[in-house]
Specification:
Layout lengths: L7 H18 L5 H7 L6 H30 L2 H15 L8 H29 L2 H32 L10 H12 L4 H4 L3 H5 L7 H19 L1 H12 L5 H51 L3 H29 L5 H57 L11
Helix pairs in contact: 1-5, 1-6, 1-7, 2-3, 3-5, 3-14, 4-5, 4-7, 5-14, 6-12, 6-13, 10-13, 10-14, 11-12, 11-14, 12-13, 12-14, 13-14
Organism: Paracoccus methylarcula
Protein name: MFS transporter
Membrane topology: Multi-pass membrane protein
């Protein structure tokens, strides 16, 4: 057993990361029921769909500011405040009496998610170093994928009884609040380290550019990747696979593969390195999108999305780990805020990018373009990181 998993702080950070996957996906099964519940509102079809994307937009806007706040105030206070806001705003859909009010609560939920994500990611950088940091980022992504499966399944069961009940799942943050408060202490640099000592850690030369590359890569990855959850269910219907369970199987294959590869990524990253790991992930993503563009059966679609999940499991932990590795400790909150903002902005923009392609090229054509885009990103990332990596650090090192 990995010694890292014996550290309660690692489990606390994984639980905090697991909450973030709930921000969008948990109420998805409730949308038809909510639309019917508020059928007298002429904007109901539009507002119910905004309930999913509203938190992502707020996270994209506020995450850099939340990250900067964790650099100034410490990590614990923003994390704990974020948990309180998450629990209060997330469960508000249980009792609010209009879609407009529920939408406002979802915007407030985005503020809580931004505080939680930036604080917990910065704590990963503060508590752990070297390969352990990369392994934990992989474990976190695995936890979020497993959590996504569990929470969405639970939400589906609850929504079948009452469309409002899935909002109760957000109350998990209130249960975690005392636990995380007890096992996640304030890092030493915020309690005892002087400003002079913090300033003595300048980070890797050119760290700002490397962080910008990682944030851009993360954002573009999600712009393309999010075509899977937003377009694949309709693609399957076009293939004659109209049973909703088919979409569940396809998405489940992707989440399972992402969870497995996220764990493996922390083990193979020392061999593949800063460049080789995300490039390998991009090639797997490209292959998976190519498979979706040519496949016409459920097993083929499951294999294709499994490759997509595996590719994402290689890429995403590396983007965050590399950014944390190169940045000075005093800027880790800002860095994680920028990465977080890029990820959620990519989620928000993805339908705007993919839908015109689907309209003009069809689903197969859109997925084919996605495949080419991932190959192009692999080439661009290789070139830019090779130019950016200092000469005293091997591009394929574990750093």
């Amino acid at each position: 057993m990995d010694r890292l998993l014996k550290d309660p702080r690692a489990w606390g950070l994984m639980f905090a990361a697991m909450l973030t996957i709930m921000s969008n996906a948990t109420i998805t099964p409730s949308l038809p029921g909510l639309e019917a519940m508020f059928a007298d509102d002429p904007l109901a079809p539009y507002l119910t769909r905004l309930l999913i994307t509203a938190p992502s937009l707020l996270v994209a806007i506020t995450a850099p500011f939340a990250g900067a706040m964790t650099d100034r105030l410490g990590r614990r206070r923003p994390l704990l405040v974020g948990l309180v806001l998450y629990a209060v705003a997330g469960t508000a859909g249980l009792y609010l009496d209009s879609l407009e009010a529920i939408l406002a609560s979802r915007l407030a939920l985005g503020l809580g998610v931004a505080a939680i994500m930036t604080s917990q990611a910065a704590l990963v950088g503060d508590y752990f170093e070297g390969p352990a940091r990369g392994r934990l980022m992989g474990y976190q992504m695995a936890a979020t994928n497993i959590g996504g499966l569990v929470f969405v399944t639970m939400a589906g069961v609850l929504a079948s009884a009452d469309a409002r009940l899935p909002f109760a799942i957000y109350g998990l943050a209130a249960l975690l609040l005392p636990i995380l408060s007890a096992i996640l202490p304030e890092p030493q640099r915020f309690s005892t380290m002087s400003a002079e000592a913090q300033a003595s850690d300048p980070g890797e030369p050119g760290w700002q550019v490397t962080v910008a590359i990682m944030a851009t890569a993360a954002g573009l990855t999600f712009v393309i990747f999010y075509a899977v959850p937003t377009q694949v269910p309709y693609h399957l219907q076009g293939l004659g696979l109209v049973d909703p369970r088919n979409a569940g199987l396809v998405m489940g294959a992707m989440m399972f593969a992402a969870a497995i590869m996220s764990v493996v990524s922390g083990l193979i990253r020392p061999r593949l390195g800063r460049i080789g790991t995300p490039v390998s992930g991009y090639l797997a993503l490209g292959a998976g999108f190519a498979g979706l563009s040519i496949g016409h059966s459920l097993p083929f679609a499951m294999v294709s999305t499994a490759m997509i999940g595996a590719g994402l499991g290689l890429c995403m932990p590396t983007f965050i780990t590399t950014a944390l590795n190169v940045a000075p400790a005093r800027r880790r909150g800002l860095v994680t805020g920028l990465i977080t903002s890029a990820i959620f902005l990519g989620q928000f923009l993805s339908p705007l990018a993919s839908q015109p392609l689907v309209t003009h090229l069809g689903y197969s054509g859109a997925f084919r373009i996605g495949s080419f885009a991932f190959v192009a990103l692999a080439v661009i990332l290789t070139v830019t990181l090779r130019r950016q990596t200092p000469r005293n650090i091997k591009p394929l090192s574990a750093h």
